[in-house]
């Protein structure tokens, strides 16, 4: 038995009016296949180009190790020169990923290669973020701390995407005081005997290819796996739904600081308690 996932709708291109009407207002995801073909980035951006333009930059790297109480919030597991990291991606599978790498701050000339699209939403122009990954590397199922509307532009290679909306929280083994589900769930091939509540969750799935854009509505859970080495750029717009905006403020001002405090006080016992609660609370929901 597999997860209950429907294909994310796809369009070749879309007008602002159609996007707002058909996807933003009902908060549904969509893949736009040919929206950025006039960007210089469409023809220029690949791993070799990134190596040539940013090879001397030291980049933060993350892998799929479970959260440890000693880890700070979004603290990298390693660092490496971008040129060495690209060489690693191109020569062998690696779990190391780059995420939340600010293009404007690190390599401002890259901004010449793209423009800010008019989808009818005000984009945060100071926060274009790049994400890189090697073959079979993946992000844990999570949602973003600010519950933003996200436009995810993919470059080079192929990327598997699985999404759930916030209504599915009770089935996802959500870890309390966190933005993640249980990290030992393989959402690309889940053991539904071990995680039976996942049978009730309804989500979406697609594969992103070079030049395609994924719209993820506010607070959507997302699991992303690099089928082949590649990278993506995200642009975001703050949550407009008052409930989601309030939750974003709480996450930023209270939740992450409380979680860090409890890690310092209780250590690994805090992480273990949260993981246990994720199972306990989810099992209660399905009963």
Provide the fold topology.
Elements: E1 4-7, E2 10-11, H1 16-24, E3 30-32, H2 40-44, H3 47-54, E4 58-61, E5 78-81, H4 82-91, E6 97-102, H5 103-106, E7 129-133, E8 149-155, E9 158-164, E10 202-209, E11 213-216, E12 221-226, E13 230-237, H6 242-266, H7 268-286
Parallel strand pairs: 1-10, 2-3
Antiparallel strand pairs: 3-11, 4-5, 6-7, 7-13, 8-11, 8-13, 9-10, 9-12
Helix pairs in contact: 3-4, 6-7
Question: What does the model show?
Answer:
The chain is α+β, with helices and mostly antiparallel strands. The chain has a single domain (about 5-285), classed as Jelly Rolls, CATH 2.60.120.650. About 30% of the residues lie in helices and about 25% in strands.
CATH architecture annotation name: Sandwich
The CATH superfamily label reads Cupin
CATH C-level: Mainly Beta
Tell me the number of helical segments per DSSP (H or I, 4 or more residues long): 7
| Termini separation | 20 Å
Average predicted confidence as pLDDT: 93
**Biggest sheet: strands side by side, in what order?**
2-3-11-8-13-7-6
CATH topology title:
Jelly Rolls
Structural class from helices and strands?
alpha+beta
Query: How many β-strand stretches?
Result: 13
Fraction of residues in helix: 25-40%
How many domains make up the coordinates?
1
Give the overall silhouette: globular
**CA-atom Rg in angstroms:** 19 Å
Let me know the largest β-sheet. 7 strands, mixed
Order of helices and strands: EEHEHHEEHEHEEEEEEEHH
Which ranges are low-confidence, i.e. pLDDT below 50, for 5 or more consecutive residues? none
Strand content: 15-25%
